[in-house]
Design goal:
This protein is α/β, with parallel strands linked by helices. The protein has eight helices and eleven strands. Helices cover about 30% and strands about 35% of the residues. A seven-stranded mixed β-sheet has the order 3-2-1-4-5-11-10, with helices on both faces. A four-stranded antiparallel β-sheet has the order 6-7-8-9.
Length: about 240
C-alpha cells in the first residue's frame, strides 16, 4: 500500500483552487522561453526531453509541438490527469516523485521550470533531486533549472495583496522566514474557509553550486531572465542554470 503524501505541495497542487489562482499564467512567455532555450542548447530535432514537475504540461505541450519527444512528470495526480488529454506519439505524462530517477539515462535534456524546485522540508531531498536529474540524463546530456532569484525577491517582496479570480477573492501574504520564501493564501468558497501556504527554500547560486559539486555535476552557464540575459544577483528576476556531467 502506498503511503499517503501529506506534504503541503501534494495537497495544494492537487487542489482545484490552485489551478484557479494561477489560470492566467502567460503561455506566450513560456513559448518564447522554450524557443530561446532549445535554440541556445542546439537540441537535435529528435531529442528526448524530460519536463520535471511539469504541472498541467504547458511547457511539455509546446516542446512537443516543436517536434521533440517529451515526457512530463509531476507529483500532482490532478495535473497529470488533465495533461494526459493532450498525449500523442511524442508527448506522454506520468505521476512521479522527482526525488527519484524516472528512466535512467533516457533523456538528452531535463527541464525543471518555473520555480519547481526547493519545496521540500528535508534539505537532503533537494540533493536527491539533483542526483535524480543526473541519473535521468544520457551521456553528454544537459539539464536546466529555472529558479527565482532570492536577492531580487527579497528586494521586491509584495507583502500583501488580494487577487480576484473566477469570483474567488484570494488574500495573499508573503514573507521570508526560516530560510523559506512563503506565500500564505486564504479564501472562502461557499462559506467554507480555505488556507494554504506555499513555501520554497531561499536557495542561492552558491547553494546550487554546492549541490552540483556533491552530485558530480558541472555548472555550464547561468542566465537572469527568460531572454537569456546575463545573471546579476541584485537585478535579475530569475536564476536559470544550465548544467551537466
Amino acid at each position: 500500500m502506498q503511503k499517503e503524501d501529506t506534504s503541503w505541495f501534494a495537497s495544494w497542487f492537487d487542489s482545484p483552487y490552485y489551478h484557479v489562482l494561477y489560470k492566467d499564467r502567460d503561455d506566450s512567455e513560456a513559448a518564447d522561453f522554450m524557443n530561446r532555450l532549445t535554440q541556445h542548447l542546439h537540441l537535435h530535432p529528435t531529442s528526448k526531453i524530460l519536463d520535471l514537475a511539469c504541472g498541467k504540461g504547458r511547457h511539455s505541450r509546446y516542446l512537443s509541438s516543436l517536434g521533440y519527444d517529451v515526457t512530463g512528470v509531476d507529483l500532482s495526480a490532478q495535473s497529470i490527469t488533465y495533461a494526459k488529454k493532450f498525449e500523442k506519439e511524442n508527448l506522454n505524462f506520468a505521476v512521479h516523485d522527482m526525488c527519484l530517477p524516472y528512466k535512467k539515462g533516457a533523456f538528452n535534456t531535463v527541464f525543471n521550470l518555473f520555480t519547481s524546485f526547493g519545496y521540500f522540508d528535508n534539505e537532503q531531498d533537494n540533493l536527491r533531486t539533483i542526483k535524480a536529474i543526473k541519473a535521468n540524463l544520457s551521456s553528454n546530456g544537459l539539464a536546466v533549472i529555472d529558479f527565482l532569484n532570492v536577492c531580487y525577491v527579497a528586494s521586491n517582496l509584495v507583502k500583501q495583496e488580494t487577487k480576484i479570480v473566477d469570483g474567488i477573492s484570494f488574500d495573499i501574504k508573503r514573507e521570508i522566514n526560516n530560510g523559506y520564501i512563503q506565500k500564505h493564501i486564504s479564501f472562502f468558497v461557499d462559506n467554507n474557509h480555505y488556507e494554504f501556504t506555499e513555501k520554497v527554500r531561499a536557495l542561492t547560486l552558491k547553494d546550487f553550486k554546492n549541490y552540483f559539486k556533491e552530485a558530480g555535476l558541472k555548472l555550464k552557464q547561468t542566465f537572469g531572465d527568460y531572454h537569456l540575459n546575463a545573471f546579476d544577483a541584485a537585478t535579475s528576476e530569475r536564476l536559470i542554470l544550465i548544467f551537466g556531467v
